[in-house]
Each structure stands twice: as C-alpha cells, then as structure tokens.
Amino acid sequence: MFRNSIILFVLVFFVMVSCDSNRIYDEYKSVPNKWNKDSIISFKINPPDSLNHYNLFVNLRNTNEYKYSNLFLIVEMVFPHGKTITDTLEYKMADPTGKLLGTGFTDTKENKLWYKEHIMFNESGTYKVNIQHAMRENGKVNGVVDLEGITDVGFRIERTDKK
User: How far is it, in rounded angstroms, from Cα 48 to Cα 65?
Assistant: First the structure.
C-alpha cells in the first residue's frame, strides 16, 4: 500500500511539473558553495520569435543558510546588435519574522522573481543575460564578497496572453 502511494505521488508530481504551457525558456546554473560578488552567471537565449510578448524572470534556489531578508541583483541584457540594458533589482527574500519566502517543502526554497514583463524580442539573433549579486550589509561600504545560501540561479521566459 505504501509503495503504491509513493508511485502515485511521483506520477502526480511529474504531471503537475510538466504541465507548464507558458514556458519558452527555463535554465538553471549551479552556484558552487558561495556566490562570489565577481562571479557572473550568464545565459544565452535565442527567442522563438519577434512577434509575441513575453515575461522574463530570474529564478533562485536558496537554503536556510541565506541570512538576509532581501537580495540585490545586477541583471544585464545584451541584445544581438550590441545594445545593453543594465538593471539593479531588489527582491524580498524573507517575511518580517525571518521566514524565507519561496516554494518548496524542504530547506531549499525556489523563488520566481519578476525581471521584465510584456517584452518583445525585436532583434533576431542571440541575446545574453548576465546576473550577479550586489549584496551589502547595513552600515558597511564594501559588498558581501561571498554570498552563502544561494544554490542555483536561473532565467525563465514565459509566453504572455497580452498582444
């Protein structure tokens, strides 16, 4: 009986995960032990078309070792013809009690963080997205050199219904 319950749970889990019809691109890269402030995580993207609109997300997986209530990221998008857009973004990572936000049943939480919405990829070719952390501790000028608790950084593109 117990074995059948496990098999049913696994099947339901895979069905729910695979039913993601809005996903166009979704990739993660692992962060070894600590995320160094000079370490840039890059994604090369070939958008499917230049006619539809898309929502863009930065995805993160973090553990309880992440000790901050927020996260600052520098996200840079390099267009195929050389134009670059750089954004400094702040995300809330914990509630006022210190409980980490995100989804997940274990100590690892997954966060889907908005980057840009309703975007069209007007240029044909390969886009590059670079992500690095820009964390600082309160009252300190120098940034956090090695950020602990982030295990994976991802980038996601989803189809949107807006035209």
Answer: 37
